[in-house]
Design brief:
By secondary structure, this protein is an alpha/beta fold. It has twelve helices and twelve strands.
Length: about 350
């Protein structure tokens, strides 16, 4: 999830799941020569901010990534927009709704993640952590595995605590974390930490401070750059048929909520950076080379969700700028061509 923190808690209050229509499969058009170059596991709070639904649809339309599992994750304890204790289940339901809208019901495993943040000790086995471990440890699959997380890190931390060997078998691409001092200023009136990190601070402490998982991080200062205009959404997304109508409709539900105030005429699709960094890589020496990052020692995270410098931390990528032109023009084109391909 990636909206400004000053509106997040009021935004996530009443998003109700609605049934999506079942259609013929929506697929991206493209040359036969385009083949998968990576595996991805999608982990997001799909029942919350709808930017995760845009990201999921975009990944499913991207022929260079194979979606191996979709995990619906929880939000903060006490969020009122879904029934208490059922946030992850609601997220999984919303993911299935999008698959139905795309005509892809049953094509991908959708799993409800943990319903709450980590407690003390090693967490028990779960369907989500089982799926992560199984995919990461596939010895006969040579495609690199990216764990694309747009919310908290509960299920990945659970999987690592249960099976630390996964650290060498995947790369975490995470939308989350506050600004790094010296790289960017926080937005006005921002909370000291950041929404996705504070969903499960202990999970972030484990992934950053205890594990040796490779991390590509898109902090708040970078995901807030992923803005599209509402008029753009009408012209370039809604016009692409039932899928586009569904996606824009999810944002309009947010815009109509009186409790969140005036959001203006643009929307942050921050989770779309997960597609940029995994599907839209350069053809030679594959890498998301149109986006900018710095290498920093991985920090520790304190109990308030703030960074603690650790000069000897393993190097991680911290993205400072995401190629929004490539990201959104690719999304618009794939939606348009997929709709045309359905006739």
């Amino acid at each position: 999830m990636a909206a400004s923190d000053c509106t997040r808690r009021s935004l996530l209050i009443a998003l109700a799941a609605t049934a999506g229509s079942t259609l013929a499969p929506v697929r991206a058009a493209g040359p036969v020569a385009i083949r998968p170059r990576s595996r991805v596991i999608l982990d997001n709070d799909f029942a919350g901010d709808p930017d995760g639904l845009f990201q999921m649809a975009h990944h499913l339309l991207s022929p260079t990534t194979e979606v191996r599992a979709i995990i619906g994750s929880h939000l903060h304890t006490g969020e009122a927009f879904v029934s208490k204790g059922n946030q992850a289940a609601a997220s999984a339901t919303k993911a299935r709704e999008l698959l139905a809208t795309m005509g892809l019901t049953g094509r991908y495993p959708v799993i409800a993640g943990a319903e709450s943040a980590l407690g003390s000790g090693t967490p028990p086995a779960s369907a989500a952590s089982d799926a992560i471990i199984a995919e990461a440890l596939k010895a006969d699959d040579k495609l690199p595995l990216f764990y694309c997380a747009g919310a908290g890190l509960t299920d990945l931390a659970t999987a690592w605590l249960r099976e630390p060997r996964i650290a060498k078998r995947l790369t975490l691409v995470w939308i989350g974390g506050p600004e790094y001092p010296g790289l960017w200023y926080p937005p006005p009136k921002a909370e000291p930490s950041e929404y996705n990190l504070t969903i499960d601070i202990e999970a972030a402490q484990i992934v950053f401070g205890k594990s040796d998982i490779e991390i590509w991080q898109v902090p708040r200062s970078s995901y807030r750059q992923m803005m599209v205009g509402y008029q753009e959404l009408l012209d370039k997304v809604r016009s692409t048929g039932p899928l586009g109508e569904y996606l824009v409709g999810q944002i309009e539900k947010v815009l109509r909520m009186p409790s969140i105030g005036n959001l203006g005429e643009v929307y942050i699709l921050g989770d779309s950076a997960l597609v940029t960094l995994t599907a839209l890589m350069s053809p030679w020496q594959p890498d998301p080379s149109s986006s900018l990052y710095v290498m920093r020692p991985c920090p520790n995270i304190d109990d308030k969700g703030e960074y603690v410098d650790r000069p000897d931390g393993r190097p991680i990528r911290v993205y400072t700028q995401i190629d929004t032109r490539l990201t959104f023009e690719d999304l618009f084109a794939k939606l348009r061509h997929a709709h045309a391909a359905r006739g």
